[in-house]
Amino acid sequence: MQWILQEFEDTHKLAEALDRLGIPYSWHKVVPFIGELIPEPVVADPSAVVMFGSYTLWRNAAANGYRPGMFKLRPFVEEKVWHPYLLNGADALFLTLREVPACLADDGREWFLRPVDDGKEEPGNVKSAGEIIRMVERVLALDEDEIPAGSLRHDTLLMFTKPVRILREWRLWAVNDRIVTYSLYKEGSRVIHRHEIDDDALEFGRRMVDLNPGYSPAYVIDVCRTEGGLRLLETNCLNAAGFYAADLTKLAAAIDGLAYD
């Protein structure tokens, strides 16, 4: 597998793991809004290339026919087998940005929101209805050709759900339908990165992966403990997700072992 890395703090951690494994890689910068790489990579086999960095790299991967390139995901809220286990999504309110002003009341209510698609236009977070409406109005005031690639657009579909108190949050990395590493990343409101996971949370994550075989060759799945038990928070593109305290040597070895025709 040929590894193409964009310069970030997390990708430098990944590079250290690749060095330990003796796996070669190359460094590149990305031209904003265009997606071209500097320097342009010399690719021996487009069917054996993997890229790590910003989510917008998927455009470069698609344009050049790289496989796997980026592990782009179907929206997790569309995966019916996961609906009984979702923290947010199964009973969510779904609105495009242009629908928000007419459909969301400015009543002081708080909402958890995130884009439905596996993008990074807006991270999952809690905002008041008024904050959401003002954010949306700023976007709608722009002509669509003024909006940079990778930003919220008039037709971006968002999901809105009731905020839930979360006690602990973990990120798990799945490769070939198997959890290969994990990390704690939050306790209550405190961000804490440790290479640890509760036994039942690890088993829950494995069960979620087993329920949906073939969802993607590689992805991250975030799970959490609430007062009502363990829940599935979301899935994310593995190539552009934070590594926290994952075992990157195990992760890199698993990804490098993926076979593509």
TrEMBL record:
This is ATP-grasp domain-containing protein.
